[in-house]
TrEMBL record:
It is a multi-pass membrane protein. Residues 1-25 form the signal peptide. Residues 50-173 form the TonB-dependent receptor plug domain. InterPro entries: Beta-barrel_TonB, Beta-barrel_TonB_sf, Plug_dom, Plug_dom_sf, TonB-dep_rcpt-like, TonB_rcpt_CS. Keywords: Cell outer membrane, Membrane, Receptor, Signal, TonB box, Transmembrane, Transmembrane beta strand, Transport. Residues 295-827 form the TonB-dependent receptor-like beta-barrel domain. One of its GO terms (cellular component) is cell outer membrane. It is found in: Cell outer membrane. This is TonB-dependent receptor. The lineage of its organism: Bacteria, Pseudomonadati, Bacteroidota, Flavobacteriia, Flavobacteriales. Belongs to the TonB-dependent receptor family. It comes from the Bacteria. GO terms for biological process: siderophore transmembrane transport. It comes from Cruoricaptor ignavus.
């Protein structure tokens, strides 16, 4: 540890020395305005420079994105967004992720940011669906957002930055802007990428699990891009790619094939009016193996949880102690069980955005945007009699089944924005006004059949058929107004308000308003500041953003269920005519500084966010006649902490540049008030086992279970139920990065870390129950009581989840050819290194969803979940 600290100190000192020797070589004025005058749109309604706004906006360009060859948005951003934490909850294709920025501001609703592409709202469901199979098996809509034609991504993480998005933006906003033509000429590129995948075995308890369930896989991707212009007024882009990944599970049980086609163009209709269009189609096919238990055989539960002792014919579950003959027997059993599984998901997704920009006079810009996101997902699970006979050891001929789940999502967005600019002596004014409407429709159908013959593919061939469906519709109307006032281009006041009306609000609830106010002062513009700072900006703001209640939660309902073959009415939901959105009120203050000729970039800020009107279920008195609970706005949740990011350029010459970057964020989360609602779980199982729970006075999603106390002989003497066992929200988190350039050679790396959180090793607790391990529990307890008290000391299986993960190490070399052509050769190692305090993968936790679709989760339970594989990829990209 001392050596590491000394190395960091030396690196910092060396960087300052190099900066001092080379500082005068830079052109200060050009660097001074490079970043602070960058134009952004997200959170502002229309384009505005960063110096005028009172919050930070993270901008990631296409070059940065290309360094991380991930196939999904959240995985690509996990080490690129400095002030948010993005963790994939599993390593299989389509798995959900847990995204947290500034803590968890809702105990009921998921913390995933809203996502826009070219101004159109996207389906961002990141939990199990209404008919999802379990908390452990959830598929994310983020996994198939178009990725291959991106110009840049902007991210804002809540507070005043998201106020203009209103009633559903408290978790932040991710906005993707696609390419629509280059500045000059036409550029083409062809990419071929291939490589192999290896299972991440770092966290496997038994070494032989790797031999039982995993194999090396391959990956290949091919992509064509075109981006250019014709004449002065027409720009166009086109991208098409194909991905084929075999995955690392035997029999290709997590195979993934993906087609991504995107196009965009812009043109001038006539003087003062422009038109932009973008379109994308994605087809994503993958297999998704079982996680957790699901009431039968699953690979990791069978091996890592020790369930091989009770499954099928029963085996010695201490896998590493098996003889070669015993291991071959269990291997044959596992291979047949894996081969017979059939769980496939197919996604088709269409997206389009259409924008008209009109500039009647130079000081007025009007923009009209309309578009839609249509996503259809089909999951097909075939369970054969052969599979059931093999895994249970009991021959069956009439228990085969086919289960189908389809989910059709349609989101339509329309927005009209007008921005006016004016000047009066030393003052400048930018006035932005707009109106937005978005509507979402989520229709799901579950249809299944049992007593199906082996070989059947259709439910129509089943002896018994069942079906169910689910509909979720909502419409949101919003208006907003913002005024940005500048003085001498160095001091700015930012004022704004948004009003929203949503169909999920109660009848007695009118339009909900979200105000904001902020200050930005570019101190480095003062002549008395000298030349030490390239830029120095102070900022502070206050803003309100919301979280929408689920559709229909405000309505009083009657349930019509069959009884005796006839219609029968039952009390459904009481309804709440005063139901309204959660509101998160945030104040923050910070500074952004670039100094020593932009070699050191520092951003630091403090935030305090309080969610009022937080949604909690209340159990109704029996006299109401309703058996279901009802949502009420009765809670308060607090999040506060620091956000910092630092970039150092210790070496910068004509041919060489070294950049080191990192972020450090803190969060303290606490449920201040539940309005009398009892504690409830958002992930986990029964109160007797392990849960992540919401309770007044504690962090959202803390671990709760039985706390065992052992005597001096190691024998259990007391077990305290419903005990606090640790928080699942990290107290510290951030990213690290490195980029080195020498002429045409680039070396880069990125990673992320967290500290201060805990999780339950549920696999280890099962291993103890089934006798696969004696770890975690004193020998005295085992000798006296055996394993009957396995649930009475869940605290013995709680582990810290501090980690540092290197997400990507890569290098490229560009060969300059004739006629503006180039060939770039690249190598990437994805997920090459993991350093963790826990014995299990701290990210591979079951995603939860005890509150159903769209529910809050913080992870926190490690249970038979696959880790993301390692990938080693080589690529060739030809630009012409």
């Amino acid at each position: 540890m001392k050596r590491e600290v000394q190395a960091v100190k030396f690196l910092l000192a060396f960087g300052v020395l190099i900066v001092g020797e080379n500082a005068m070589a830079q052109t200060k004025d050009s660097i001074k305005t490079r970043q602070i005058d960058e134009v952004v749109i997200t959170g502002q309604g229309a384009a505005i420079s960063k110096r005028r706004i009172s919050n930070t906006v993270t901008t990631i360009n296409s070059k940065e994105l290309e360094k991380v060859p991930s196939q999904r948005l959240d995985a690509q951003l996990s080490a690129l967004v400095p002030n948010a934490q993005i963790n994939l909850s599993g390593g299989q294709a389509g798995s959900t992720s847990i995204i947290k920025a500034r803590g968890i501001n809702s105990a009921f609703l998921n913390s995933t940011p809203i996502i826009y592409v070219d101004g159109v709202r996207m389906d961002n469901m990141n939990t199990r669906s209404a008919f999802g199979t379990s908390q452990a098996s959830a598929m994310s809509s983020i996994a198939d957002i178009p990725m291959d034609n991106i110009e840049r991504i902007e991210y804002i993480n809540g507070g005043a930055a998201t106020t203009l998005y209103g009633a559903d933006a408290a978790n932040g906003v991710i906005q993707i802007f696609t390419k629509k033509g280059s500045g000059r000429g036409t550029n083409y590129s062809l990419l071929a990428e291939t490589g192999f995948q290896t299972p991440t075995a770092d966290f496997l308890y038994f070494k032989r699990t790797k031999d039982l369930l995993f194999e090396n896989g391959y990956s290949q991707k091919y992509r064509f891009n075109m981006n250019g212009k014709s004449g002065k007024d027409f720009g166009y882009s086109f991208s098409a790619s194909y991905l084929n990944s075999s995955g690392v599970q035997i029999f290709k049980q997590n195979e993934n094939q993906k087609i991504d086609i995107s196009t965009g163009f812009r043109t001038k209709l006539f003087e003062g009016m422009d038109y932009e269009s973008s379109f994308s189609y994605v087809r994503n096919e993958y297999k998704h193996n079982r996680n957790g238990n699901l009431g039968g055989y699953t690979g990791l539960w069978f091996t890592e949880s020790g369930a091989s002792k009770i499954t099928g014919p029963g085996f010695n579950n201490r896998l590493d102690d098996l003889t070669d003959q015993e291991f071959q027997a269990i291997r044959d059993y596992v291979r047949e069980a894996e081969r017979l599984q059939d769980n496939a998901i197919t996604v088709n997704r269409f997206f389009t955005s259409q924008t008209v920009k009109y500039r009647p006079v130079n000081s007025l810009n009007i923009k009209l945007t309309g578009g839609l996101d249509y996503r259809t997902q089909k999951q097909n699970i075939i369970t054969t009699n052969q599979y059931l006979s093999h895994t249970t050891g009991k021959p069956v001929t009439n228990q085969g089944s086919i289960s189908n789940l389809t989910r059709d999502y349609l989101g339509i967005t329309g927005e009209l924005t007008a921005q006016h600019t004016a000047k009066a002596r030393d003052f400048s004014f930018i006035t932005t006004a707009g109106a937005q409407v978005f509507t979402t429709e989520d229709y799901q159908v579950s249809y299944s059949g049992t007593n199906v013959r082996d070989g059947a593919k259709l439910v129509s061939e089943a002896a018994v058929k069942t079906a169910n469906d689910f509909l979720n519709q909502s419409v949101n109307y919003g208006i907003y107004l913002q005024e940005n006032i500048g003085f001498k281009n160095k001091a700015f006041i930012d004022l704004g308000i948004r009003g929203d009306k949503n169909t999920s609000f109660g009848e007695e609830v009118g339009m909900q308003f979200y105000p904001k106010a902020g200050l930005s002062y570019v101190l480095s513009s003062e002549p008395w500041m000298g030349d030490f700072f390239s830029t120095l900006r102070l900022r502070a703001n206050y803003g309100v953003a919301g979280n929408l209640p689920p559709a229909y939660a405000n309505d009083k309902t009657v349930r019509f269920l069959g009884f005796g073959g006839e219609q029968a009415a039952f009390f459904g939901q009481l309804g709440n005519e005063f139901l309204k959105p959660e509101k998160t009120k945030t104040w923050e203050a910070g500074m952004d500084a670039n100094f020593l000729d932009n070699r050191i970039n520092l951003s630091a800020g403090y935030y305090n966010a309080k969610t009022i009107d937080a949604l909690f279920y209340l159990r109704l008195a029996p006299s109401y006649g309703y058996s279901s609970n009802q949502l009420f706005n009765i809670g308060e949740i607090e999040n506060k902490g620091w956000e910092t990011r630092l970039s150092l350029v210790p070496v910068r010459t004509e041919n060489t540049e070294l950049t080191l970057s990192g972020s450090f964020n803190t969060v303290k989360n606490k449920v201040l008030d539940t309005g009398g609602a009892p504690a409830f779980n958002i992930n986990g199982f029964s109160e007797r086992t392990i849960q992540t729970v919401v309770q007044e006075g504690y962090p959202v999603g803390f671990l709760r279970g039985y706390h065992g106390i052992f005597d001096d002989n190691g024998v259990l003497k007391e077990s305290i139920p419903l005990s606090y066992l640790g928080t699942t929200i990290p107290e510290y988190y951030g990213n690290v990065g490195l980029n080195f350039r020498y002429k045409n050679f680039n070396l880069f790396s990125s990673g992320s870390y967290q500290m201060g959180a805990y999780a339950s090793n549920w696999d280890a607790q099962f291993r103890f129950l089934y006798g696969a391990s004696d770890d975690n529990v004193p020998a005295g307890e085992i000798n006296q009581n055996g394993r009957k008290n396995w649930l009475s000391f869940s605290n013995a299986f709680i582990e810290k989840t501090d980690f540092l993960k290197i997400r990507n190490i890569g290098m490229t070399y560009t060969f300059d050819l004739n006629n503006n052509q180039s060939l770039t050769a690249g190598f990437n190692a994805i997920n090459p290194f993991n350093f963790a305090k826990s014995s299990f993968d701290p990210e591979a936790t079951i995603p939860g969803g005890a509150q159903g679709q769209g529910g809050a989760t913080t992870g926190g339970i490690s249970y038979a979940t696959y880790s993301a594989p390692r990938e080693f990829l080589i690529s060739l990209k030809y630009n012409f």
